[in-house]
Amino acid sequence: MVTLFLLYAGGFTTTIGAGMIFPDWPLSNGSLNPEGWTQNTAMAAEHSHRLLGMIVGNLTLALTFWIWWVDGRRWMRRMGIAALILVVLQGILGGVRVLENEVNYAIVHGCLGQIFFCVLTAIAIGHTRVWHKLREKSDSPVKLSRTTGVVLIALLFVQLIVAAIMRHKGAGLAIPTFPLTPEGGLLPANWNFGVAIHFAHRALAVVILFAYSFWIVKLMRSTRQNFIRGLGLFACILLFVQITLGAAVIWMGRAPIITTMHVLNSAFLLATTWATHFFCYHAALEKSENVATAPANQADGSTNPQAVGL
């Protein structure tokens, strides 16, 4: 939940152009509590982003220790380490972006944040009762097409990169009308980098819409697990919300709240799709753990990971 607030704070800071309101790091104007930051919108946005980043970093450290203490699954422990490494990298990237005043670091920072959110999602999924109750039955998600899911997630991530470049290069309104261009056509009359990256964002959205249509049909035919089906349908709902928010960003002249919600919903969409796809790996992950760790668990009395399921 705190990570969601962090994603929103980061998105809002970028939207209002407050990323460089403080020229120093890790302090803000040389202080942990800079004077007047609660009265200035830009200062409040950036300093809140930094404070939330610190909180998420500490919580991730605690989460990693907790996983290693109570969960004997090797893949889950690796997920914990991955989350810790990612949150440290995020903090460093955020700081370097300020110290170097380099927008390219901000682009990587924005993309890495959503990868971190997906890792946290996988950790959460791995501790649910649904995950632990799955077995290799005829309706097991092991039969889902991994290739379809991988392609869809790859498309989403490419879209994320394109969107981050578009935002940080100031091309959010390079094509100021939607769904048609100002000339009334589908293709812009004049091209430059901003128009090209903006148009690529729109074109990829159409490709992703068709990809989701194929993916959800395949998902419904491949599993009878209601929870997994529900996740897939929820992802499709989020897709339509995302398209609507994207249109609203144009129609409302990139209003800060709408634009930030568009960014936040993209994180929800990617994480929900990833969570649905992650069930494809249930059988492989748990089977390898059963073979490798069952004798050791019996010998040392380590905690059964199912006992900590939510």
From TrEMBL:
The organism of origin for this protein: Coraliomargarita sinensis
Gene Ontology CC terms: membrane
GO BP, one annotated term: heme A biosynthetic process
Stored InterPro entries: COX15/CtaA_fam (IPR003780), COX15/CtaA_HemeA_synthase (IPR050450)
Annotated keywords: Cell membrane, Disulfide bond, Heme biosynthesis, Iron, Membrane, Metal-binding, Oxidoreductase, Transmembrane, Transmembrane helix
Membrane topology: Multi-pass membrane protein
Pathway assigned in UniProt: Porphyrin-containing compound metabolism
Transmembrane segments: 51-69, 81-99, 105-126, 147-166, 195-215, 227-251, 257-280
Top-level taxon of origin: Bacteria
Primary site of residence: membrane
Pfam families linked: COX15-CtaA
GO molecular function ontology, one term from the record: metal ion binding
Protein name: Cytochrome oxidase assembly protein
Compartment(s) of residence: Membrane
